[in-house]
Amino acid sequence: MPPTPDLNPWPLTVATYNIHSAVGTDGRFDPKRIGTVLREINADVIALQEVPLGGNGRPNVLELLQQETGFHAVEGPTEDSARRRYGNAVLSRYPILQSQSIDISFGSREPRGALDADIDCHGHPLRVIAVHLGLRPAERRDQIRRLLQAFDTDLAPVILLGDVNEWFVWGRPLRWLVSHFEAAPAPRTFPSRWPVFSLDRIWISPRHRLQHVRAHATPLARIASDHLPLVAHIDG
Questions:
Q1: In whole angstroms, what is the distance from residue 164 CA to residue 176 CA?
Q2: What percentage of residues in the chain have a pLDDT greater than 90?
Q3: CA gap 222, 205 in Å, rounded
Q4: Distance between CA atoms of 20 and 33, rounded to whole angstroms?
Q5: Which of 15, 54, 125, 213 lies at 20 to 30 Å from 161 by C-alpha?
Q6: What is the CATH number of domain 12-234?
């Protein structure tokens, strides 16, 4: 008889990566380089920010990365016009059952969003919310308040991950997130060549399932984008 396949997804590796429109610190547009970094990480679920999604003859970088990884993919555009499509995305080794974009734009600031995806990890449900928050404190405070409301009645494990753009360790948005998810390690990820700030974060509820968090600081990752990928291991 053939061996029974291992359908236990744990431990799961998740990552968040602001790919800076696939433009590296050398100023070169190179989506394949981003794809190579993703293969280095070998994560099961990846949240991406600043992803070109096509429009007006521009390349759809998510499609290229999906081809590079062979993963399932969903997009969450924050800009969706004939001129340009751009925003968040999730890549997953496991099927993505459904997804929705959450508009968290603030006033006249640059449009921002969160991509909320339900993933089936061999029968184990997982909810992933990939975010990219704004640059101003008042903007982030409003966005975090709105995001936390989305978690109030959740039954499945929830992972919130992305570029939170929070420079202030004791800023209110981070305090609110820690109150909801409990504290989590925050390695420095920006700028990628010499990281000083922990702009990229991964939280999970329940907290005890978060086993290890690290920045992926290989030579290629230091040049492929202005952010380093952040990687976490999640246990069942």
A1: 13
A2: 61
A3: 30
A4: 12
A5: 54
A6: 3.60.10.10
3-state secondary structure 10-46: CCEEEEEEECHHHECCCCCECHHHHHHHHHHHCCCEE
| Residue with token string 């494990």 | 157
Within 8 A by CB and 6+ apart from 105, the residues are 78, 111, 112, 113
Residue extents of the structural domains in the chain: 12-234
Mean per-residue pLDDT over the chain, rounded: 90
- The 10 Å Cβ neighbour count of residue 77 is 20
Strand boundaries in 56-197, DSSP class E: 58-60, 72-80, 85-92, 96-103, 113-121, 124-132, 158-163
The pLDDT of 89-115, averaged and rounded, is 92
Q: What is the pLDDT of residues 5-31, one digit of tens each?
A: 556 777 899 999 999 999 999 999 999
